[in-house]
Please model this.
Amino acid sequence: MMHWPDGQRAALSLSYDDGLAHHVDTVAPALEAAGLRGTFYVPIHGSDLAARPAAWRRLAQAGHELGNHTVFHPCRREPADAFGWLSPAYDLADYRPEQLRAEVQVANQALQLVDGQHRRSFGHTCCDIAIGRGADAQPIGPLIADLVVAGRGAHTERIVQPAATVDPMNLGCCSGDGCQAADLERLVAATLACGGWAILMMHGVGAGHHPLFIDTAAHAALLALLAAQRDTLWVAPVATVAQHLWSR
Ligand SMILES: [Zn+2]
Model:
């Protein structure tokens, strides 16, 4: 059984990946207008953070989480021809444990310079949860569990269930990219019905910002639905919900 604050029946976290400029310019303000706060998983290298740290500091000061999304956004290049955007130098399958740990530590330090926070969650890049190959593969979670408060983990399309054994470093998530308003209404209803914690992963909002995106109208409908459900559904950043659960 998960116990939620203020008599609420379930929890939901909104997460937005890859540190896009429009996260600062339009997405975070839309959340704030609806009284909501989210988690923004921001890689240090090649994201909008390096170009506009002051803007991201304001986003964090408004109550959003800057989540750790590594420095270089390494992923398992499987199949390699689908990862033309990612240099083979950043293939997670070739990462060594100390290399990944150092990268997560440096990302923490860079984000701390922006937001002053010491505790944040980790958004597994490409939802990959292991480094190495074959018999040498090992899960990322235990390697970095002392560096972050929780890991969003694999793309499971499952709500974190109150009765299940929860792996804090591989919580699992549902994708909002490509969803329509009705899909998201079903997710919210299922979350309330089970009393669990839904972690929604999104990239762009509307076309033109990222190859993966949620339709603008569907996103607006989701925010309106969540605002209307505020007495029953707790919407908070991943680190906030995790710290609430782990403190109990
Ligand atoms: Zn990403």
Observations:
- The two ends are 11 Å apart (CA to CA).
- The domain at 5-246 is CATH 3.20.20.370 (TIM Barrel).
- Residues 17-18, 69, 73, 125 surround zinc ion (CB under 6 Å).
